[in-house]
Design brief:
Largest sheet: none
Number of strands: 0
Number of helices: 11
Order of helices and strands: HHHHHHHHHHH
Number of domains: 1
Structural class: mainly alpha
Shape: globular
């Protein structure tokens, strides 16, 4: 692998940018990496879809170290999410070989835009931020399990970590404070990325040169992103998160329709 080749220099830059955003916004980064790899690095769409998954593991674990120091994790959410999300991700990864991904990507992008607009409206209306963290006893298991299965299936189908969907669900439906929601989403993204990466590797969907470059660059960048998130004031982080959802959703939607 020649690191000075233009496409690999682009991959390094993508890894740094996506890694920082992953730590900042509690996501794995695949939703941004896939179109970016195709547009800016000229990577084959087949490999651009799943090759970012190993980097999602490194970036989310790096961010999780920062969030753990702030004691933002909700153990019940993480345990139930992992228990039901892992098998759902494996199932979705296998189904990805038989189902057309374009329609799913369009619906996912529209869903993310809708969630982002809804959250942005709610955050702009909110007068005072809620800093209290939700305890395990305050989390209803049934909706959490249902959402986790759905997000896991979708994550497997689209070869991503599901971080955006997890954090959006935690904020919107579980009413988690945003920093706690991002912390839990980052851990679940790391956990769900493992079976997703292994399954897509077995199916021949991963270029390990790309995966290695993304992983090495995303790890330190994600740590910096998470450090930024925990230091930001809650209202600013809320608006940044919601606005970014809208931008990423529109970005993915247009890319999917035009490719």
């Amino acid at each position: 692998m020649e690191l000075l080749q233009p496409e690999y220099l682009s991959v390094i830059l993508i890894g740094l940018v996506v890694g920082y955003l992953s730590g900042l916004l509690g996501k794995g980064g695949s939703a941004i990496s896939t179109p970016a790899l195709q547009i800016f690095a000229g990577i084959n769409p087949f490999f651009a879809l799943a090759s970012p998954l190993p980097a999602s593991i490194s970036s989310t674990l790096s961010a999780a170290v920062v969030y753990s120091k702030e004691k933002l994790f909700n153990k019940k959410v993480i345990l139930l999410g992992a228990l039901f999300g892992v098998p759902a991700t494996i199932a979705g990864s296998y189904l990805s070989s038989y189902l057309p991904g374009k329609t799913l990507m369009i619906f996912t992008a529209l869903f993310i835009v809708g969630i982002g607009c809804s959250l942005l409206y709610a955050f702009l209306k909110k007068k005072a931020p809620e800093e209290e963290r939700l305890e395990e006893t305050e989390i209803a298991a049934a909706p959490l399990i249902s959402a986790t299965i759905f997000i896991g299936l979708l994550a497997g189908l689209l070869a991503n970590a599901g971080g955006i969907l997890f954090s959006s669900f935690f904020i919107r439906k579980l009413k988690m404070p945003i920093k706690q929601a991002l912390a839990c989403a980052v851990v679940l993204s790391a956990i769900l990325s493992v079976p997703g990466a292994i399954t897509h590797w077995c199916l021949g969907h991963i270029d390990w040169n790309i995966a290695l470059l993304l992983s090495l660059t995303a790890f330190p960048a994600s740590y910096l992103g998470a450090k930024t998130a925990v230091k930001m004031k809650t209202p600013a982080l809320e608006k940044l998160f919601a606005g970014t959802l809208v931008i990423f959703g529109i970005y993915d939607l247009f890319f999917t329709l035009l490719k």
